């Protein structure tokens, strides 16, 4: 028995550490933040949030300047430049998501301490670990982008997921949160098991856990009469397992309950971070079977095709029926996964670019919208009914504006960022000949317009019911600041979509890092 | 098919119609454009005055002045008239081109087409227009504080549009005038706008006219499509060389144009608006709805006669419609009690004669009759207006009697008698000759149907004489007796009464005004009205002069000279030919020449009608009532008097056949639109996603295991499907 | 900054300024901005390069916005686009002025949204690029939805929702078609390019059945906006509920985006498809003329009546486009302008009444000539303009549309433009002349004539504070429109001549296609079939 | 019994057991309401996958499957810690381990 891929460990480890500086920074920050949360000094405790945000932003910046595509290619990363786009992007949006969380953890406790009604009790305060968990999760996504084998993918995904289970449970610690957590955790565990089984089958079919080797093996199989059933089954189970992360049919059932039960900022977090992880996982796993070459096995294409249609349709149709905003957003996020699955099903490099851009647009819009929604709350919970938005324009004009912008962007009204996301998915799908998917996509955009219209109209048009108890103001300014920043980005970034898209295209360009990977491949061949 | 003499004549004159000389372009006559501009300016100024609530008679005098100037201009043009037609380009309008030749442009410039027909028409339009406007300055004086300026704005708009209609150099400009006079008519019929009946009448006039306009518009389209131009100067050059009875498209043109003419001239099925139009102030009735506007249809056909000559069948239709309308309207006119309504039906009837003349090929007769009719009918209306003015809106001949002996109304009565005699075509009156010209073309024709129409026309002449003098003997002769109308200032000025709220005064019962009766003093017309009546009456007399001239001095009839060399000339030539042949070649009718027979019969019918009226309505008025009762008692024809009084129920039939079904359809469609299409289909489709979404709701039951089952089931399905495809033979 | 850019950026700037300025200033800023835009548009008209050239002439340097996708921000006009932009620029200040007293609360938002609407309309008309056109086209939805939903009537939310969803439904077809076309071009040329002229040139070369589908989808997109019969139900509600200014722009320019889109994109891009589908469209149009007119007849709400009348009028306008000849096309474009002016003016008039009486119900309101003679004059004038009285603007477009339809039959082609419609269509469509007269005069009869009827104010509404008849501001709003109505009716020559090159350019591919179709029919059937082919198509 | 002696048979058996483990895990997960038991069932599924990995590793003569298994065990342990914490939290709230007690969030 030999280790299948005797890559020269010394060199690759060094390369990989070079790639992993952002994650290391995040993990370090997580430790620091966890400790800071236990401080008796309110100022230090109050700095947990800002420090976390700064850490995330710093890791994003770090990702810009470390771990070039050459290094990644040398390390055998399938899409060597992917991380260069994804890590800063995720960091930017994660920073926004962290800002949306501003002030909500331990809010009652801190308020009581502020009133001198309670003393600080480190056993009760969770702010530190909450932020640490968030940072872990973000680090997990970042790790995933440079994954080279299935083990790494698995570990990174777990690193993304496990903290989010906790965040849902402890964020507010109320009953809906706990219920959401238990559903999320158990169903997540089942999905992970399914995914693992898929990985096992993949291993069985190709004899390797390394993505490039799996790709080679599949390539060889495809050249000689097609990928074996075992491989297809493995791909399928792995994909379905990953569907859980991206809330795609049939693994989306947990999403409405979990998103509704989780505190609003956590909902925002859930609707982006695991989703990115899931899509990156899908790209990596399916990349082994010729995703961007349009050579996926037909059953996989069919699976993606059906999943795309069902996901967006069920998502949008479900969203129409809701009265809870978080639940609506859950369905909305299911629908958006459906749109992105269209790009996967189209299976071209252009489509992949479109997907990566869409993730970005979706993330920015999510921060803008959730930040706007987070400005109001109710005692011990979120202000989650649409009616709670009534009259918002008078109390929170900026948040209102950002909710409107966000809903417009989600709908895909030009010239907002969301429009360009849909635009590229559509063009690439048209180019790939997936006309039916395009039709479904546009029809679903139409359906979605109806509930996004409620997000737009209620705060602007409706007047609050005089009998209802008024909502409270979120004491923290961070959510609204994040919302404004990202909402304005929705308006401004379209002017720079050209350069953003260039960036995305470089991220998926297989030629990137080719200069470095060629010698590396030669080297590995030599050592064999 | 054997060609009848008429049609062979027509074919013979095909060459003659190519005699229409090519138009010369005469920019140096652009001063004639002022005839178009002056009424327009006057209309604009009057409108601004109306909006600015100018009080005073300034708008009236302004209008009179501008119209008078127009008349002078036209008269000047008459004096300096060149031989052939003249085109005077004034400005661009709706012209554009996309290629060099005929069919590659739409030329509809603001240009005048002047030939003798134009001048002839404009002479009496502007002349009468001036006089009637003058009359109206006094007639409308009660309204000085209210609608005076609006009234004269309407008159000015009318004159502008009529000028465009008559003088315009292309069919589109004619259409502009056509609808423009419709607008003026609408404004003026609805002048007393607080009166619902006036509003309804105005609406009806415009809408019925619109049906005709539709035909005219389509006719213009078709003309362009067939000949590539709608400019007269080019069009008649093209048609001169066009084959007769060309393709169906061409053959349709005259029918469409005819529809327009029928609408404007209240002929055939489209006559119903004209009687109601009497809701307008009387000068309007005189000017627009008797003398000038309603003759626009005659003008249209005379102007486009070359197009009609290409389709003799179309002319036959015109003749039939004209003849039947003349008779039909006369039957209704016999049973009306409102003086103005009688005159209105007589107008329809006389217009019928004109169309009969056109159809029979005697454009000369038609134009001559138009000319004479304009004067005597204006005269009749103006006298009726004077009565109305003086007797507080009273026009019911059952409530007026012996007006000729009421102080201040003597002159009015005599001019009414003059008008009546002329309308009854009393021998050697102007209308006698003009009507004769038309009827002889029918009676003397070789064609049986034309002969029938000729005799029908003669019969109608008798009816005309009867109903005309029924009115005169009732209202102007006999013992003095009158009941004033229900308006303090006369019916016309009802809205001037200080009703601030609820102006629906309508026609209150006469009893309510009984106290007026004792102290009511009719006031006779003053100088302006008298002057206008007198001039127009004299004009009516003089209108016969051309006929006397040709009869006694054997000169060419002036009217005939006026239309010679115009587009109507082809027809005029034919008729002269026919008439001459009838006389010389022994087209014997009742043993006499056609001309003599017609004159004689016409005289007998006319005088007979007058005598019957004399007996029934002056000598023994009770006889009329007993006759009426006797007819009503007769089983089979008992319904006739009532039906005639109710205008043969035509309005009711139209209402039931056209208006009600359309109205019901409108409601049905509205229901469909609102409740089926919108609330059903559109909202249904809109709601379908959430309805479908509802189907999936049970899947989100909230129980952890059920989610797990669904998810695992999904995975299982996918795997099963994978296995199935694999077993089916791989992928 | 060039004049073209001014027309787009200045309103946006104004919107931003208004959002942060005192409420009292909002309307004045908006008025000033729209005034400057009007001046800039006039500057464009005066400085237009070449009236004899039908091309879309660039007015600005192209900004390469998304070079990867061949999308560039490049503004330009042909005479048609210029005329539409001018229409918008003229209507906007009047709308702002017309809202002065009508809009009392949330003024800043109102005028800011108005400015955004202005900018996006201007962008749509000036775009030379399919995507920027779409951006302008689509974004108009947003301000309009808020204008309706915030300042509208009692059913405003339903109206806004329906308006948004329905027109969004249309525009996704438009977007889908444009993107599909872009993708096809990419496949064939290897590069993305969304330049409209290039796209049209490419699309014209597509096979006939592909063009059929393309036109179906593009047409569907625009049909909702026009709106074409059966896709129109959003319109009465939206018009009815929108505030006056919103209604004016909705009728005046927003609906014209649909017809303009047909003219600019759908027809030239898929001429084969247009020819094949023309009978269907034409039948829908003539149905709409009759249908809308009859429905107008039974309306009680005067605003709703005018809204329904728009459906009939625009159907006539579209019919002119499908005549495929110069007369029809010119008439159609002219009609777009005229409908904008006269219907816009009518909505303004109705708004003025609504401000005074708080009702639009013709059963409760009438005989206003007595109380408001000046208003009645204007209302009557615009009504007559709307029913196509010669000498007023409505006539020119209506007449030419009908005439174009009439002469567009198989046989003629005498004008070098054979068509697939013909007298049969024109006959039915022309019945609109009578029906329009019918319902509009009934409306006039109720609204301005007859005995005075004023609703007894139940005291729910605060007094409007307006004079019984129009005040000088309102006269100032209506007078320019009245003058334009007269001027465009009496002197259409210049406009018609200048529209001709653009129409010729748009129609360039059509004669050959129609001729080929007729030739094919001729070889298939006997001579009778040829003569009758229009009817046959109508039946099919 | 001879089949067991060969590697192939051994691998086949291991795979069958892996599949069984996984299936039992799923079945138990779907049918049981006790959260502890449900968690154990997920562990079963994990171990099924792990056993399959080992078997495939054996089949390919490759050690990375076993490496993966070790990681799975580690993660499973982490998850177990999480699960137990969560379950205790829930139990404190509701005094029951029945998962159906937590079904308030629904359509």
Question: Would you kindly provide a written description of the structure presented here, covering whatever features stand out?
Answer:
- The complex is a heterotetramer of chains A (528), B (731), C (540) and D (107).
- Helices cover 73% and strands 1% of the residues of chain A.
- With 528 residues, chain A is mainly alpha-helical.
- Chain A has one domain.
- Chain A has a three-stranded antiparallel beta sheet with strand order 2-1-3, with no helix packed on it.
- Chain B has 731 residues and is mainly alpha-helical.
- Helix content of chain B is 68%, strand content 3%.
- Chain B has 29 helices and nine strands.
- In chain B, the strands form four sheets. Chain B has a three-stranded mixed beta sheet. Chain B has a two-stranded antiparallel sheet with strand order 3-4.
- Chain C is mainly alpha-helical.
- Chain C is globular.
- Chain C has a two-stranded antiparallel ribbon with strand order 1-4. In chain C, strands 2-3 form a two-stranded antiparallel sheet.
- Chain D has one domain: Helix Hairpins (Orthogonal Bundle).
- In chain D, 80% of the residues lie in helices and 0% in strands.
- Chain D contains four helices and no strands.
- The mean pLDDT of chain D is 90.
- Chains in contact: A-B, A-C, A-D, B-C, B-D.
